Each structure stands twice: as C-alpha cells, then as structure tokens.
Predict the structure.
Amino acid sequence: FSIGNLWIMASTTKGGATDDSSTLGKKDKKKLKKLRNRVFKVQNEGERSGILTPQEWEEYKRLDPDYHSNDHTRVGPSIRIRKRKEGIKVEGAQHRDLLAWLLKQILFPEKNEAPMSKKRKREENNKESIHTVTLPPWVSVHNPGSTSSIIALEIHLPLSVSLKLDRLDSFLESCKKTHCSTKTRTKWFQGHTPRSISDSLLYFNSKHNKKSKPENISKSTEEIVAELEGMLVQPQELEKEGYPTKKGSEANKAQSTSLTPTEKIDISTTSFEDATALVEKIGFRTEKQDDDDDQLYVSTATSADTTESSSQSDQPPRVFGMDCEMVRTSAGRELARITMVQFQSFQQDGNTMTTTTIMDELVKPNKTVLDYLTRHSGMSPKVLDPVTTRLAQIQVALLRFLRPNDILVGHSLENDLKATHLLHPRVIDTALLFRASNKRTKFSLKHLSAYLLQKKIQTGSHCSEEDASIALELAIRRAWFGESFQVPSGDDRRSLFEGLSAARIMFAGPADWLHSHITNNSNGIHALNYDDVPKCKKAVLAWQSSPRKTDFIYSQWNVQEENKDENMKELEDAVVCTV
C-alpha cells in the first residue's frame, strides 16, 4: 500500500499459448480451444470474465500441454478497474469487500457461498459478512477460478520516507509485464469511527439504527451555559492531553497586572514594542516547552488586577469558539491566523445558532517560515508578507478581553493554546467530548461535522473561522440535546474471518497490532510476531511456498525512521521477493 493508494498485484496473461495439442482427442481439443479463448480474452466491461470456477481451471491445466512446461505462458487471476470507472476514488471498505469476495471464491467454490441453514441465512442477510459480500462496482476480475490464495501487505512509512514511494511505484509499474498491477486512489477513513487500514480491511461495518429525531427541547441561554460548565476539561485531563501548564518554578510567580479590561478585541491599541515588554514582565515558560521556542506564555487567570478580577468573576461566563492556523518555522509551529467566535443564542427549534465573529487576525511569525503548510492552513507568502501584527500583541489583546471564567471551545484546543502561548483554565475540547466509547479514538472535526451536523468542511485548505464555528456548534448542540448527541459506538464490528475456522490464515507483524486484531480474539488464526520487515518477509514467503496451502496471508510492515535509507531498501527488496 502506498499513502492514499492501493496496489493490487496478481499473475496475469502474457500472451497467447502455443498450439501443441496433437496428443489430445478431437473432443478435448475443442474443449481446450474454448478454455484458452476464455483464459486469454480479458474483458473488463462486467464484474467477471475468463475461467470462473476451480473445476474449469483444473480442466484447463489438464488439457493444456504448455501449462506445466518450464516456459509456459503465465496465466492466472487479474483484478482490473472496470471500463468507464478509471480514475475513481474508492472506499477502503470496498477493498475489504474485494478481499472477502476472493476469499469466498477460495473457500466456497461450488456455490460461491458458505453452506448454512435457512435461519442462519436470514440472519446473515441482515448484516454484512463474507456470506453476503459482493464485488465492488468498479472491479472486474479475470479468471477468478484460478485464485488459490491471497496475500495482503499493509505498509506503513514515516513521512520522511513516504516521499520515496515513487521508487516503489515505479517498480510496481514495471511489473505489468508479468503481473496485473492495478493502482487505486483510496479513501481509508470513513464511517462512524476513524479507520486505520487494518480496521477498514479486516472488519465489516456495524449497522446502526437510523438516528432518531431529537425530541423538542427548550432551554434558555443560561441553561445552555450551565450545561457547558459540566463539559469543561478537568485539570488532570488537561495535563494528560498535553495542554500547556506552568513550570513548577513559575507556579507561584506574581503576575498580576494593571491591564484594563476591554469589551472588544482591538489589536491596534498596543504597539508591538509595548506588548513585548508587557509579556516579558508577566510571561513564563511552560512544562515541555521546546528550547527553540523563546516566546513566553501568559495566563488569563492572572491578567487583571485583584479588584478588576473580582468584579469580572461576578459576571456570567461568555462562550467562545476558537481556532488557529499555523505555519512551520525554525521554532516549530507558529501562529499565523487566529479566529474567535462568540456564542449569542440557540433557537428553540434546535436548528439555528447565532454567533458573532469577534476576532479574525493574521499574525506574522517571529521566526523565518520554513513551510507555509498551505494545503491545510491556507497561508502563503502573499498572505503573510504584508502582515505586521505579532504574537505578543495577540496575547495582550486576549488578556485584556478574556475573563478567567469565560469558556473557550475548540477541537484539540491544546494546539491552539500552544500557538497563542496562552493558558486558560476553562476549556471544552470537542475532540475529548465526542470521543468514541473506547475513550481512545478521537474523531476528526471534519467527521463530527459531517455526521452530527450534516455539514461538509475542510474541502480545501482549513478555515479557522469555519472550524471555530463548527466546534462551538457541536458543544452547544451537545448542551441542548444531551449525551444522545454523539456518534454511535463502533465496538460491535464483525471480523472478516468470523465463522471461517476451517480456513488456513496467517498474520505476521508487530505484537500490538496482532493483539488488537488477532490474538485478543478466539479465531484459530496463526499469528507470528515480527517487528522488522526482513523477518516478516521470510514468514510470508515461507507460508506462501508451504506444501500445505495457505488461504490468506496478511502482514503489516513498518519502516522505521532510523536508518531510513537502509530500511527503504529492505522494503523494496521484500516487495520484490513477495511479488
């Protein structure tokens, strides 16, 4: 697998066979001619062509005098993109369906389905399984009856190595002389739960009941804010999730100031020099702050003097959505744009939220920009070169405006607070609020928006105003509708290999991967623990050439960051040997 793509390799026709069938009878010659025509005539208009059953394939091998010779033309199964489907982007789950369909061909060749009782058949028809799977609409399989085993290689590369995928792609392209190599643009992450490649290929999707329409609820703005109070991230979780915290030596540092609170954010009131001086006076470093990052942090908890702070705490908390865009500099990721959206009201019909954008500022990074990350941030030299506003001015403006009891809402908000070098104790993080039931999987903001709000976002570069508004709306709707406003759990997924105890299946890869998908369940699958690519390759080749036929081999190969050139060469050699 390459990033975002999938290569399907299979033996394929190389040309016509010689006509040395003089020892055959007239009837067998006629039969061989028909079989040869089907074997070598590739058609990709429909889902299947060529030899369709193992029985026909065995008959072809028996009749063809060239098949068992040392220089016979290589023939076999091939998987191609169906006519008029070229260039489409496919779902990862469709590759799972393809694997399941091929496995069904191997295990249940007679009727192309597993034998089962009428009751079992009715149950299976109501859920996805190997018994009910069909070929994806873009796939055309030639000579499916010649399929005897399947090997799937899942390859993970660090970003620094992934740029060398062109070498691997070039090799796979060159294999078209002896193999059918089909490359697809694949969307791996879909459904209710973020999916890894293994999750997409090894499990059938859970089928959930249709979302029920929320009951008619009426809540005042004060009641909504009270609900939001219960969603605040707790102090111990802030530290666990990597939110910036003061260093122990800075914890008791006096930082009260005489900043006058403002009712609106105005960057122009403080010059860069004055802002820098103020931040140097009250700022501090945080735990785990990079040495290259020399910008000090400030905290809203100590932004005003005691009298002002006391009067502010008596006021009701305000709620803001916040999002930032960053660029990469020599100091790491620096702030390039910050947006804050203030919650005003939520209509009683539960469909309309009113907000006000109170801040949307471009910020000039302190260090030289190494990468504008334009694809995600939307930033470019043309956008940032004219900008004069600096981070220190943003910090002072936020200190003047934000009250200690205000609530900030964002998605993975720790990144935004690090970018603004700001500590604020009262935050709602939608990445944590909408975690999957296993408490480990975090949904992307794009996924939450699509599923819960039916809104498509981030179709191009990210927009901080859009992302801030979406995060705020997700939190407000959760406060309005309660815990039922959540993506459904995906824990009841069904393994691709459920009920296939008679199949001979082998998995090879890292221990944690095997534990997650294989050894943690009772399934009779052979699991071999290897962490490095060469050992995985040896295991795959040994099982591939074993006298006892293996129906399905799946191996995960991880190329390490260390010695990446050497590891990339090992990967290429391993792929060459396996193919």
